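User: Just a sanity check before I run the rest of the batch. Below are the structure tokens for the first item. I only need the designed sequence back.
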């Protein structure tokens, strides 16, 4: 975990919901999670997560996912984890989010 110069835990990054671009992003807009709405706006399909190499290893992708999943939960949305980071890394490490994962396998149409 990152620490500040005084030895305390670093502040979690501020994640902003950019509704117009369908993204959750850091303040500087360099790291983001992109989604599409499906089924009449009832399902959030997380299609891409990006963190620039200069910011990797800080847990930003996880913070972006938590923001998106919190948003989905508070708005009664299901989530399709199309992004491989979400399906292969975030969800296995955070199984408490599985109840809001969309039940049909829409990724099978690949």
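Assistant: Here's the designed sequence for the first item:
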């Amino acid at each position: 975990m990152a620490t500040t110069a005084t030895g305390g835990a670093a502040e979690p990054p501020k994640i902003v919901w950019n509704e117009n671009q369908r993204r959750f992003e850091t303040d500087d807009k360099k790291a983001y999670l992109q989604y599409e709405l499906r089924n009449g706006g009832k399902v959030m399909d997380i299609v891409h997560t990006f963190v620039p190499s200069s910011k990797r290893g800080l847990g930003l992708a996880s913070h972006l996912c938590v923001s998106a999943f919190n948003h989905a939960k508070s708005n009664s949305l299901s989530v399709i984890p199309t992004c491989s980071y979400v399906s292969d890394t975030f969800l296995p490490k955070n199984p408490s989010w599985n109840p809001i994962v969309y039940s049909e396998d829409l990724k099978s149409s690949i």
